[in-house]
Amino acid sequence: MVDHKVEALSEDTVTIDGEKWPSKTVIWTSGVKNNPFFLTHSEYFNISENGRVKVNRYLEAFKDVYVLGDNADTRYSGRAYTALQDAIFVADHLERRAVKKLLKPYRPSRVSQSVPVGHNWAYVEKYGIYLAGRSGYTVRRLIELANLRSLLPHNQALSAWHAYDKRDGSCELCKIRPVPKVEKA
Ligand SMILES: Cc1cc2nc3c(=O)[nH]c(=O)nc-3n(C[C@H](O)[C@H](O)[C@H](O)COP(=O)(O)OP(=O)(O)OC[C@H]3O[C@@H](n4cnc5c(N)ncnc54)[C@H](O)[C@@H]3O)c2cc1C
Fold first, then answer.
1. How far, CA to CA in Å, does 151 sit from each of 49, 70, 174?
2. Count of domains in the chain?
3. CB of residue 32 inside a 6 A radius of ligand 1
4. Residues 55 and 73 in one domain
5. Do 51 and 18 fall into the same domain?
6. Which domain holds residue 159?
7. In a domain, 68, yes or no
8. Do residue 20 and residue 46 come from a single domain?
9. Which ligand 1 atom is nearest residue 72's CA?
10. Percentage of the chain surpassing pLDDT 90?
11. Mean pLDDT throughout 104-127?
């Protein structure tokens, strides 16, 4: 089924367009779509096959118009960390332009993949190294702390980090011991 709306989820049903389907396991995936602004103004933008905007080595779509984050056709686009890195890059770039310093080209930085499943269980991958279970969750939490620290003053980062810890609900998978093995993709 496509173009159907998931309306509700309970322990053993998922409701799609008013109809209840029995399921104890529901896996939700979603993509990140580009802002339609660029396609509706495609005469100004060079749009790549995946709908993202092609940018030059300074993240410019054309002179003085920067496109970043999900909208930009960069290597690791579609991730929150990339969007942050892009913003930091453009801020530094504009400062360099203003004071006539040497301009540095944009370098996409590789991001880790992580999938938290409830409390105390996560799957994490970086540089081809995979971790699943409690150790994955610990690494995921450390990555979250590092990301928050790059954004907020120390105290605010810590309290946001602790608040994150309380947000995850319980899940049956997390109670399974030993932790199920995750096959390498
Ligand atoms: C369900 C979901 C889960 C995700 N989980 C993760 C994850 O675990 N890790 C990860 O790294 N990434 C995750 N992502 C991807 C991540 O959220 C995006 O890559 C990131 O938010 C992109 O940042 P951005 O600034 O480019 O765009 P956005 O965060 O989408 O910000 C764009 C902003 O522009 C505003 N806007 C749009 N049009 C206009 C307009 N005309 N005028 C003014 N404002 C406007 C929007 O309201 C929005 O606030 C997830 C995405 C989704 C949808």
1. 32, 19, 30
2. 3
3. yes
4. yes
5. no
6. 112-166
7. yes
8. no
9. 26
10. 55
11. 88
Alpha-carbon distances of 156 from 41, 140, 159, 167, rounded to whole Å: 40, 19, 5, 17
Using an 8 Å Cβ cutoff, are 66 and 90 in contact? yes
Is the distance from the beta carbon of residue 155 to the nearest atom of ligand 1 less than 6 Å?
A: no
Query: Which pLDDT does position 89 carry in this prediction?
Result: 96
Are 52 and 30 contacting, i.e. CB atoms less than 8 angstroms apart? Answer: no
Q: Is the pTM of the predicted complex or chain greater than 0.70?
A: yes
Domain identity same for 42 and 77? yes
| Ligand 1 pocket residue status of 70, Cβ below 6 Å | yes
Are 45 and 14 part of one and the same domain?
no
Q: CB under 8 Å to 158, separation ≥6 — which residues?
A: 145
Atom of ligand 1 nearest to the CA of 70: 26
Q: Is residue 151 part of a domain?
A: yes
Does residue 79 line the site of ligand 1, with CB under 6 A?
yes
pLDDT, tens digit, 9 for 90 and up, residues 157-184: 999 998 877 655 555 555 555 555 555 5
Q: Kindly state whether residues 51 and 74 are assigned to the same domain.
A: yes
User: Is residue 107 included in any domain, yes or no?
Assistant: no
What is the 108 CA–ligand 1 centroid distance (Å)? 18
State which H helix or E strand residue 114 sits in.
Answer: strand 113-116
